[in-house]
Write a structure and sequence with these properties.
It is a single chain. This protein is α/β, with parallel strands linked by helices. The protein folds into three domains: 183 residues, P-loop containing nucleotide triphosphate hydrolases (Rossmann fold), CATH 3.40.50.300; 95 residues, no CATH class; 107 residues. It contains 17 helices and nine strands.
Length: 396
């Protein structure tokens, strides 16, 4: 299927919404009347949300209590209660049904309400009630077309992933009318959460490791610097926004869509760092680590790309030591990690590529694992381990 700009932004938004444990909110920036609200409804439908479990708030029109919770007297004291419209969505999620909230007109949200909305978005708690399972996204107009455009505070912007919602072309407008004024329908593949945890999250973590060690100044960007202040929107690198970006990378690896990852990374940590991160992911091109855990002999290092071998071992050892794996499988996976190190030593001979992976395995031994069972491998890399201060005997 031909991927239009609208299809591309819809896919990126869908990936953000289905990323496990993600609390970074996708926010569309697009001109008024361009179809943002209808397209948000389509994504909600694709996620299985019933019409009665979808809601849209015009954020400037809501009181600060809608974000912070309402104080009401109960049993002689004041307690915080949830807005009725939000409570309806929460009750749906408690029954195991998906629910969706669109926060619209975010660009017109007064700064006096942004602090409350910030907590609403980032903590997703009111009183004793959590609404973390309610899917949320935002929408806003460009500052030049807003009804009462407000400057978005930096802390507020750091919770968002900003995606530019494209304008309709004349052809798309004509097709829209011919469809009876119905938005174009897109299909979205389902995310396999188990495979995401087993294969995609370790790959993403390994890629991030190489990105951040090559560019350590990306961990914290000064939001007051001229470089950041000139950005629109004001997205910048923090541990929080980078964590969200790594989650998005895992999801885009899951769906084999690194083009969407570039959009998500740019919208979360800025154009420069986002494109660098996306380029790193494409350059390393890591394979599913589960393939090598199942059969270490499948691992064939490329002597021309030691960086890829190094990153692939990182992904393999992270996957091999996943705590979520059934206890009965942990020892076999741990041993498979060591066999992958053996394979690299046999094929490549460069012990330095294996040091950190060996240390990681030694520090994450499952019950019943003995370093003496892999002593031949340890002895081979022991001189370099000792020289680097990584003698894993201390971690036995």
């Amino acid at each position: 299927m031909r991927q239009t700009p609208l299809h591309r932004v819809m896919l990126a938004t869908y990936y953000a919404l289905v990323t496990p444990r993600n609390m970074q909110m996708p926010i569309w920036i697009g001109h008024p009347g361009g179809g943002k609200s209808e397209s948000a409804k389509h994504i909600a439908r694709a996620l299985g949300v019933k019409p009665e479990h979808y809601d849209a708030w015009s954020t400037p029109q809501h009181e600060i209590e809608d974000y912070n919770g309402w104080k009401v007297p109960m049993n002689g004291r004041l307690v915080t209660t949830m807005d009725d419209r939000l409570l309806r969505l929460v009750e749906a999620t408690r029954r195991g049904e998906p629910a969706f909230l669109l926060l619209d007109e975010l660009g017109d949200l007064p700064q006096s309400k942004q602090a409350g909305a910030l907590r609403f978005i980032s903590e997703r708690v009111q009183g004793a009630d959590s609404f973390a399972d309610v899917m949320m996204m935002g929408a806003m107009n460009p500052a030049s077309t807003g009804t009462d455009s407000q400057e978005m505070r930096m802390a507020f912007a750091n919770r968002g992933t900003f995606l530019h919602f494209p304008k309709f072309t004349p052809e798309q407008s004509a097709e829209y009318m011919l469809r009876g004024r119905q938005p174009e329908q897109y299909e979205f593949a389902k995310l396999d959460a188990a495979r995401w945890e087993a294969s995609d999250a370790p790959r993403a973590a390994a890629i991030y490791k190489h990105f951040i060690l090559a560019m350590p100044d990306a961990l914290y960007e000064d939001p007051e610097s001229d470089q950041v202040r000139q950005r629109a929107p004001l997205v910048y690198c923090t541990p929080r926004s980078l964590t969200a970006t790594v989650g998005f990378l895992a999801t885009c690896l899951h769906f084999n869509d690194l083009a969407a990852f570039a959009d998500l990374a740019v919208g979360t940590i800025g154009h420069e760092r986002g494109m660098e991160f996306a380029a790193q992911a494409e350059n390393l091109d890591l394979m599913d680590p589960e393939v090598f855990i199942a059969d270490p002999d499948m691992l064939t290092p490329d002597p021309r790309r030691p960086d890829r071998t190094f990153a692939q071992l990182d992904a393999i050892t992270a996957a091999a030591c996943r705590p979520a794996v059934a206890k009965a499988e942990r020892l076999a996976r741990w041993n498979a990690g060591w066999k992958c190190i053996d394979r690299v030593l046999e094929c490549d001979g460069d012990e330095s590529l294996c040091l950190l992976s060996a240390q990681y395995l030694s520090r994450n031994k499952p019950n019943g694992a003995l370093l003496q069972d892999v002593v031949a491998t340890i002895q081979r890399i022991k001189p370099l381990l000792t020289a680097a201060g990584l003698d894993i005997r201390d971690n036995a």
